[in-house]
Amino acid sequence: MRILLVEDDLTVRAFVLKGLREAGHVVDEADNGKDGLFLAVSEKYDIVILDRMLPGGIDGLRILETLRGQQNPTPVLILSALADVDERVAGLKAGGDDYMTKPFAFSELLARVEALGRRGRAEAAPQTRLSVADLEMDLLSRTVKRGNEKIDLQPREFRLLEFLLRHAGQVVTRTMLLERVWDYHFDPQTNVIDVHVSRLRQKVDKPFDTHLIHTIRNAGYILRAD
Fold this sequence. Notes:
single chain, 226 residues, Rossmann fold, Arc Repressor Mutant, subunit A, 2 domains, five-stranded parallel beta sheet, elongated, phosphoprotein
């Protein structure tokens, strides 16, 4: 599973990271609330493990409330030193799916994470279509159309549009595109993104009255129907 771990305590974070990765999971990490919130709302995870008390001006409950406010159903396991009954109830009422207190046994944490993952897979219906306004992508047939017009895309263009559709209404950065569309984990210092976005616009936007792909200056791109 792909897991997001938001934990400011370096020792706890390293301990959990090591154990989860040894168990075969892919784990992203954040050590403060601001970065944790950004990752939680901009990326797709199977599970989020979330500390309550975080630096950065955003605590765990605010991250959780933001996710649920966006109708994001990702299972969240709260991992916190706040052990009172009232604190546990507050975490669960805010949208948490499980609550563990520190100190904890990693074997129990792993069992709870995997149980949440099984529950999430059982509840999630496979997504086969993505759409914004009159733009629609069929993931099974690998086809794209806008209105009644079919749009032919090259494989990389299809992957780029799929990523934009999955993050519709959200700003996607160049770094996110390099990592998720090109599988680069470094900046190649080329205009490869600009070239492909331009080509995609020629096919998806230019022939139509309403443009869907927008540039956000000094930030990235966003797919939305204005």
